[in-house]
Recover the amino acids of this structure.
């Protein structure tokens, strides 16, 4: 099966090498259609997201992606945001759970963050009103809010989850977050077997760091979803292990939660766990459950055996950690 592998910036090269080597050893019948994106291709192709990348995902329907750098406060628009918009990948799914041998403050954390992926302040509608004033427009629509709410409830039903908790700031953003909240309320009525809960985002953050075990599925608009999913990643061991997926009606792009980590790029110390768990989810999504289980089990067994990269307190390089996973497939 042809699957697009998007190679981005920073640690992208290292974690993509881990993916390629492990997938070869898996014998999963995957033919990677490798596409580069990000800073390095701007010079040669004039865009960080050349058309060939989008065409490849449209052709193959499924992609696995390493992170792409987005310049801060200036420069080109986020490749990630463009990709999600262009392919209408409206649901961002980020499961956060404790992994073996990864010591954290809390045990038995098992939270799934469902983040709306196409609008909110991420729509990037901004303007400089005058020299001293800037304006960003927050777009929330009923269509997108209902669609992501339905996704969260369907996910809960399919995965035996008990509760969906919608997270907003509807006390302040009464119209925009109010619309998101009302849409979630309406959709919740169609799912009588799933408990529905509402919480304000500030309180949610406090509750998450005090007692994360109370949460099950969290449903959030784009920006809060971005921030809260990094918080949840921190609860279970950090960005090196946090997997993710962007899902739409026609296409799905699997990618870790973390960014291009320029501070550790090129040093062979990045943790490939997040992208490998994303890849395992990708296998499940395309119906290759055997490869999904085999890959996830090997990653978890490696961690259980105390083999870890530096971000988790270990001393294995990305490439050595990869070899240990291959030995356990
Ligand atoms: P980041 O996630 O790249 O890094 C934050 C911290 O986590 C750093 O200390 C980094 O070393 C560490 N870290 C991240 N992934 C790791 C891994 N696999 N193993 C070990 N340590 C890891 O976030 P940052 O620094 O805020 O962003 C860097 C760039 O990445 C920015 O340009 C940002 O826009 C972009 N970014 C891209 C994303 C994507 O492509 N989906 C998502 C988030 C950020």
């Amino acid at each position: 099966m042809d699957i697009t592998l998007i190679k981005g910036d920073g640690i992208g090269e290292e974690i993509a090498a881990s993916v390629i080597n492990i997938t070869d050893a898996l014998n999963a019948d995957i033919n990677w259609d490798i596409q580069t994106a990000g800073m390095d291709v701007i010079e040669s192709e004039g865009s960080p997201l050349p058309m060939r990348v989008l065409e490849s995902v449209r052709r193959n329907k499924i992609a696995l992606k390493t992170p792409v750098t987005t310049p801060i406060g200036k420069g080109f628009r986020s490749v990630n945001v463009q990709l999600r918009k262009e392919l209408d990948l409206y649901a961002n799914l980020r499961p956060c759970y404790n992994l073996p041998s990864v010591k954290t403050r809390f045990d038995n954390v098992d939270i799934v963050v469902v983040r709306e992926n196409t609008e909110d302040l991420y729509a990037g509608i901004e303007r400089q009103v005058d020299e001293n004033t800037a304006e960003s427009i927050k777009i929330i629509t009923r269509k997108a809010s209902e669609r992501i709410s339905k996704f969260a409830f369907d996910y809960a039903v399919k995965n035996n989850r008990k509760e969906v908790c919608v997270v907003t700031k509807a006390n302040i953003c009464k119209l925009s977050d109010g619309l998101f909240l009302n849409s979630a309320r309406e959709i919740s009525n169609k799912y009588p077997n799933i408990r529905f809960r509402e919480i304000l985002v500030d309180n949610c953050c406090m509750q998450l760091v005090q007692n994360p075990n109370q949460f099950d599925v969290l449903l959030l608009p784009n920006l809060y979803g971005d921030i809260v999913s990094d918080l949840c990643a921190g609860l279970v061991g950090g960005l090196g292990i946090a997997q993710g997926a962007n899902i739409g009606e026609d296409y799905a792009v699997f990618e870790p939660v973390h960014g291009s980590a320029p501070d550790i790029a090129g040093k062979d110390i990045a943790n490939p766990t997040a992208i490998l768990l994303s890849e395992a989810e990708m296998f499940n999504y395309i119906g290759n459950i055997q490869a999904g289980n085999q890959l996830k089990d090997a990653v978890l067994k490696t961690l259980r055996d105390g083999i870890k990269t530096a971000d988790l307190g270990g001393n294995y390089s990305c490439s050595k950690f990869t070899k240990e996973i291959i030995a356990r497939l």
Q: What stands out?
A: The two ends are 20 Å apart (CA to CA). The chain is about 40% helix and 20% strand. The first strand starts at residue 2 and ends at 7.
